[in-house]
Amino acid sequence: MTPLAASRPVLELIDVVREYGESSPVRALDGVTLTVRRGEWVAIVGPSGSGKSTLLNLMGALDTPTSGVVRIDGHDVAGRDDDALSALRGHTLGFVFQSFHLLPRLSAVDNVAAALLYRGIGAARRRERAVEALRRVGLGARLRHRPAQLSGGECQRVAIARAIVGEPALVLADEPTGNLDSRTGAEIMDLFAALHADGVTLVLITHDDAVARAAARRIVLRDGRATSPPNVVPPDVVPLDVVPLDVAPPDVAPPDGGRARGQAGT
Question: Which residues fall within 8 angstroms of residue 215, CB to CB, at 6 or more apart?
Answer without folding.
Answer: 41, 42, 43, 202, 204
